[in-house]
Specification:
The protein has three domains: 56 residues, no CATH class; 236 residues, no CATH class; 92 residues, no CATH class. It is 31% helix and 24% strand. It has twelve helices and 14 strands. The strands form five sheets. Strands 1-5-2-11-12 form a five-stranded mixed beta sheet, with helices on both faces. Strands 8-14-13 form a three-stranded antiparallel beta sheet, with helices on one face. It has a two-stranded antiparallel ribbon with strand order 3-4. The protein is globular and about 80 Å long. The N and C termini lie far apart (66 Å). The N terminus is likely disordered.
Length: 411
């Protein structure tokens, strides 16, 4: 009877207990099944045999025991200057994590106020301030604004140097004093880290230009010395007539063909060529059109262990949503948008930048998908109606094209 009562109480109380441990995405279907069977409960349940669940938790990189209801942040040297998940991410020996800096690129006319910096303070961060400097020039006074970048300095004081990502392949100048780190988000390394490089090549018909180029190539093969000795005139004439003159003839034929086709009379040149078993050589060539802009996709799953991690998770999602959108400037009657924030993405180890992975230049967040349901499971909430799990899928696009110079620098 006693054992039955304990088991009944344990089953009833299981939902609230999920806040006392982290269940990472790696748990997969087992975690979804576990949550689907829970219906009610209370915090910090200790009755019953929890060894099986603790064994399952070892599959997660953020292992916690069921009896540990609060995360230990006192040993985390970096957690105070950014939003992070899990709460003790940079204080445990995970080895690798990913850092997102949000960059305010327009400091505004009023140095005492900036919406992005105020938003960061509302999120509990210290992003720094904007310093106004007056410089006399030509008999007048010119005001300049410079961001006092405290967030980047926080890391430097912990012997972690986060370099500013300079955009070098842009038409507009990239000035260091024109922006400031307005926020920071630290997350565990997602399971799928990769990078894709692309180059744009397009095929075009060179037509008469190709014919003339080919003819000139043949003409150059006739040596000047031979011509001076009276040799090679026949070859030269053949190349000129068969090349340049032939090209002009072909151009005329193409022009008549296009004209007849445009009048609905059909393309007589293609039809005639098919009868002869021949087709016009359009001298098609591949031309380099430039590099592709790289894109980066990241997916994260959040299983909050307690109220602190629930609040932090919701702040992280809000940060990404806020900084991907523009600011409507009411000064212009709402007709003008100020650009969304830019992002810096850095791969870090517990000692600093991971130099073994590729670098990423400044990015824009182009897509943000947020989910509130476990994969393959049903929507569930805690007693305060906060979801038991969150997922976020982010798509970033780099803001400059890459060159060989960038490749040498590790991009």
């Amino acid at each position: 009877m006693g054992k039955s009562l304990k088991l009944k109480n344990y089953c009833k109380s299981a939902v609230r207990n999920v806040k006392s441990f982290v269940v990472n995405k790696a748990m997969g279907a087992a975690a979804n099944s576990l949550f689907s069977s829970f219906t009610s409960g209370f915090n910090n349940t200790t009755v019953g045999d929890v060894s099986g669940i603790n064994t399952m938790l070892k599959k997660s990189p953020f292992e916690k025991t069921l009896n540990d209801s609060q995360t230990n942040t006192k040993d985390d040297p970096l957690g105070f200057q950014h939003l992070q998940y899990p709460t003790d991410l940079t204080g445990i020996e995970l080895g690798n994590w990913i850092l997102f800096f949000t960059i305010a690129t327009n400091l505004g006319k009023n140095p005492a106020y900036n919406a992005d910096l105020q938003f960061a303070r509302d999120m509990g961060m210290s992003p720094g301030t904007i310093k106004q400097t007056e410089v006399r020039s030509g008999g007048g006074v010119v005001k300049t604004y410079e961001g006092m970048d405290e967030l980047r300095d926080h890391y430097k004081k912990r012997n972690i140097t986060i370099p500013r990502m300079n955009k070098t392949n842009t038409v507009l100048s990239d000035e260091k004093n024109s922006d400031i780190v307005s926020g920071a988000i630290a997350l565990y390394m997602p399971s799928d880290i990769k990078v894709s490089y692309g180059a744009n090549w397009g095929a075009e018909d060179t037509n008469i230009s190709g014919d003339i180029a080919a003819a000139w190539k043949n003409v150059k093969q006739v040596q000047i010395a031979d011509l001076m000795q009276g040799k090679g005139q026949k070859d030269l004439l053949k190349n000129l007539v068969g090349g340049a003159a032939g090209a002009i003839g072909q151009a005329g034929a193409r022009g008549v063909s296009n004209l007849s086709g445009g009048l609905g009379m059909g393309d007589w040149l293609k039809l005639l060529g098919k009868g002869w078993g021949m087709a016009m050589n359009n001298r098609k060539e591949m031309f380099y059109e430039g590099p592709e802009f790289r894109t980066f996709n990241y997916s994260f799953a959040f299983w909050p262990r307690n109220d602190v991690e629930t609040e932090t998770t919701q702040k992280i999602i809000k940060m990404f949503k806020y900084h991907m959108h523009p600011w409507k400037d009411d000064e212009w009657g709402g007709r003008i948008f100020r650009y969304p924030s830019e992002f810096e993405i850095h791969y870090l180890t517990n000692t600093g930048i991971n130099e073994k992975l590729h670098k990423i230049s400044r990015c824009a967040l182009t897509k943000c998908d947020v989910g509130y349901t476990p994969e393959g499971g049903n929507f569930k909430t805690f007693e305060d109606y906060a979801p038991v799990t969150y997922t976020i899928n982010l798509e970033f696009k780099e803001l400059e094209y890459l060159t060989k110079q960038k490749m040498k620098d590790g991009f």
